[in-house]
Each structure stands twice: as structure tokens, then as C-alpha cells.
Design goal:
The complex is a heterodimer of chains A (about 110) and B (about 110). By secondary structure, chain A is mostly beta strands. In chain A, the strands form two sheets. In chain A, strands 2, 4, 5, 6, 9, 10 and 11 form a seven-stranded mixed β-sheet that branches. In chain A, strands 1-3-8-7 form a four-stranded antiparallel β-sheet, with no helix packed on it. In chain A, a hairpin with a 6-residue loop joins strand 7 and strand 8. In chain B, strands 2, 4, 5, 9, 10 and 11 form a six-stranded mixed β-sheet that branches. Chain B has a five-stranded antiparallel β-sheet with strand order 1-3-8-7-6, with no helix packed on it. Chain B is built from no helices and eleven strands. In chain B, strand 6 and strand 7 form a beta hairpin. Chain B is mostly beta strands. In chain B, about 0% of the residues lie in helices and about 55% in strands. Classes of the chains: A mainly beta (about 110), B mainly beta (about 110). The interface between A and B is medium-sized, with 20 and 20 residues.
Chain lengths: ~110, ~110
């Protein structure tokens, strides 16, 4: 596609449930990034993939958060035992170099009730 | 101390004004400096990317890096109502400011 696609655009889940958020990067982009953005804040880095491997996962807040990119394209962010504090917009970005072509998706708005 | 600090504003200017947006950062080893524009309910859009120090210009936008002061700036000339958005700085990949909300009044 022309841009980074994130699905779903909105997700409401109950506390304690498991959720998966999907990111479809721009075709050919080797790097993929996940961020979390709370209201009135800048994006907070979670994890960065180069190809299939996680090059930097230092931003994942705890072991309830996990992300995969098995074929070096689509990525899934997985959150177990969701908590109300996980409510935020989860943003995905992709690029083909250091920042060349760096493009964000519109995000998934996650609400944990 | 946070890696990057940014005044959240809000900032309101008349159309045609020059806008100055700023961030300070903590680590003198940082080399990468980016500015983004974010409209409501959209992802950030990369405006300017600067490696190391100096100025970079692109149309109405100029990015400046002062490494001695650990201070970065984005200038917008001839501001337009369509520039109304939140502007985010990012340093050294992954450290974002909180964003400055800008409104350009017609």
C-alpha cells in the first residue's frame, strides 16, 4: 500500500484480556518501529525491528508486551493481561534506512476498561 | 532529567508570522535530530532530519542545531492556518519531546 497501515484503528478491551495490534509497513521498508503515545505526550519508543529480528526492544515496559515480525514485513504487537494504564495510541512506523522514507501509521487507539 | 524537553505551549500566532519552536536535550553525544508535525488523530509526519550540527532548510521550514547549548529549533516562515498542528522534536532516535501545540490564526 501507499502508507503504513495499522489495524484495528480503535480497540476497546476489558482489563485482563489479551490484545493484538497489527502493523503493515510500506512495501520494501526493512525497519519497523512501535511506539506508544499517551494524551498530551510525545511517542514513547517500544521496539525496533530490522528485518525479522528485534534490533532494540529496550522500550517494552514489561513482559506483558511482546512483538513479532516473522517474515520481515507485517508486525504484531501483543499485550497480555491488559491494564487500564495500557490505554494509549499505539503507533507504528517504517523506513528503508536510518530515517529515509520514515513514515508513521495513524495508530491504534487502545482503551482498556 | 528527561532526555529531551519541549515547551507544550499552546502557541498562537497570526497568519504570516515567523514561528520558532524549540527543544533542549540532555546528552551531548546525541547526533540525530528530527522534527515532526502531527495533526489530530494522525501519526507524526517527518518534516526535518538533521545529522550532527548546523542548519537545514526546506521550503518555509528551517531546522537549527546548536550542540554547544544542546538546543534545537524549528522555524516556520510565512506561517499558514494549515500549519496548525502539534510539533514534536526527536533526538538520537526514539527520544521524543512532549510536543508544542501551534495554532495559526487567519
Amino acid at each position: 500500500g501507499a502508507g503504513v497501515s495499522q489495524t484495528p484503528s480503535n480497540k476497546v478491551t476489558e482489563k485482563g484480556k489479551y490484545v493484538e495490534l497489527r502493523c503493515d509497513p510500506i512495501s520494501g521498508h526493512t525497519a519497523l518501529y512501535w511506539y506508544r503515545q499517551s494524551l498530551g505526550q510525545g511517542p514513547e519508543f517500544l521496539i525496533y525491528f530490522q528485518g525479522t529480528g528485534a534490533a532494540d526492544d529496550s522500550g517494552l515496559p514489561n513482559d506483558r508486551f511482546f512483538a513479532v515480525r516473522p517474515e520481515g514485513s507485517v508486525s504484531t504487537l501483543k499485550i497480555q493481561r491488559t491494564e487500564r494504564g495500557d490505554s494509549a495510541v499505539y503507533l507504528c512506523a517504517s523506513s528503508w534506512g536510518q530515517r529515509e522514507g520514515y513514515t508513521f501509521g495513524s495508530g491504534t487507539r487502545l482503551t482498556v476498561v | 532529567q528527561k532526555e529531551v524537553e519541549q515547551d507544550p505551549g499552546p502557541l498562537s500566532v497570526p497568519e504570516g508570522a515567523i514561528v520558532s519552536l524549540n527543544c533542549t536535550y540532555s546528552n551531548s553525544a546525541f547526533q540525530y535530530f528530527m522534527w515532526y508535525r502531527q495533526y489530530s488523530r494522525k501519526g507524526p509526519e517527518l518534516l526535518m532530519y538533521t545529522y550532527s550540527s548546523g542548519n537545514k532548510e526546506d521550503g518555509r521550514f528551517t531546522a537549527q542545531v546548536d550542540k554547544s547549548s544542546k538546543y534545537i529549533s524549528l522555524f516556520i516562515r510565512d506561517s499558514q492556518p494549515s500549519d496548525s498542528a502539534t510539533y514534536l522534536c526527536e533526538v538520537n532516535q526514539f527520544y521524543f519531546g512532549t510536543g508544542t501545540s501551534l495554532t495559526v490564526i487567519p
